[in-house]
C-alpha cells in the first residue's frame, strides 16, 4: 500500500512539474503580458510581451513588432527575460533528474539511495523553476498596478492592464512548486521502508548466526 501511494505521489508530482514547465515556456513567448484597451477606438487593442508589442484590429487581425533593443527595455522586462529562460532550463533539468529517480523505472533498483537523492534534487530544481517563474510575473504585475494608479498620469491616457500571460505564469509557477513538494515528500517517504527493510534483514542475519553458533556448541558437547 505504501509503495502504491509513493508511486502515485511521484507520478502526480512529475505530471505537475511537466505541466508547469510547459506553461512556463508558453508564458515566456506569449505576447499578452499586458493589454491596452483604447476607449476612443474599441476595435483596436494593444498587447505587450517580453519580446514584442502587438496591435489587434478587427479589419487586419494581429500585427506584431519586435523590440528594437534589449537595453532600451524597462528593467522589469529585461530581468523577466533572463528569469523566464532560467525557469525553463531549471524545469527541464528537474524533469530529467526526477525521471531517473522514479520507483516505476526498473533501472538502478539496487541503488535505491541514489534514486532517492535524484528525486530530492529534482524536487529542488522544480522549486527553483517555480520561484524564477513567479518572480518576473509578479514583478511585471506590480509595475502594472503602480502605473495604473499613478496620479501623475492624466485620466484620459489609456492604462496597461493584466494580460492572460500573467495568470498563466502564476499557474505555471504554482504547478512547479507543488510538483516539487510532492517529489520531495515522495523521496522522504521512500527512506523509511528502506531503512526498515535493512533492519529486518540485519535482524534475520543476526538470528541466523546465533542459531548457527548454538548448533555448533551442541554438536561439540555431543
UniProtKB/TrEMBL annotation:
It comes from the Eukaryota. Its main location: other. InterPro entries: Claudin, Claudin_CS, PMP22/EMP/MP20/Claudin. GO terms for molecular function: structural molecule activity. It is a multi-pass membrane protein. It is found in: Cell junction, Tight junction; Cell membrane. One of its GO terms (cellular component) is bicellular tight junction. Keywords: Cell junction, Cell membrane, Membrane, Tight junction, Transmembrane, Transmembrane helix. The chain crosses the membrane at residues 12-30, 82-106, 118-142, 162-183. Claudins function as major constituents of the tight junction complexes that regulate the permeability of epithelia. Belongs to the claudin family. This is Claudin. It comes from Pan paniscus.
Amino acid at each position: 500500500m505504501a509503495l502504491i501511494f509513493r508511486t502515485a505521489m511521484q507520478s502526480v508530482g512529475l505530471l505537475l512539474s511537466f505541466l508547469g514547465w510547459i506553461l512556463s515556456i508558453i508564458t515566456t513567448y506569449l505576447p499578452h503580458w499586458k493589454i491596452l484597451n483604447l476607449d476612443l477606438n474599441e476595435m483596436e487593442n494593444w498587447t505587450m510581451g517580453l519580446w514584442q508589442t502587438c496591435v489587434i484590429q478587427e479589419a487586419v487581425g494581429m500585427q506584431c513588432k519586435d523590440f528594437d533593443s534589449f537595453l532600451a527595455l524597462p528593467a522589469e522586462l529585461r530581468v523577466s527575460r533572463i528569469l523566464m529562460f532560467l525557469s525553463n532550463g531549471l524545469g527541464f533539468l528537474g524533469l530529467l533528474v526526477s525521471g531517473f529517480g522514479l520507483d516505476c523505472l526498473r533501472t538502478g533498483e539496487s541503488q535505491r539511495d541514489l534514486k532517492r537523492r535524484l528525486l530530492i534534487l529534482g524536487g529542488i530544481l522544480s522549486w527553483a523553476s517555480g520561484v524564477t517563474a513567479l518572480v518576473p510575473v509578479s514583478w511585471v504585475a506590480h509595475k502594472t498596478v503602480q502605473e495604473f494608479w499613478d496620479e501623475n498620469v492624466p485620466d484620459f491616457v489609456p492604462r496597461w492592464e493584466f494580460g492572460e500571460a500573467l495568470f498563466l505564469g502564476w499557474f505555471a509557477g504554482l504547478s512547479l512548486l507543488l510538483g516539487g513538494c510532492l517529489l520531495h515528500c515522495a523521496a522522504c517517504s521512500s527512506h523509511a521502508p528502506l531503512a526498515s527493510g535493512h533492519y529486518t534483514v540485519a535482524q534475520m542475519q543476526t538470528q541466523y548466526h546465533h542459531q548457527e553458533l548454538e548448533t555448533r556448541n551442541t554438536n561439540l558437547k555431543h
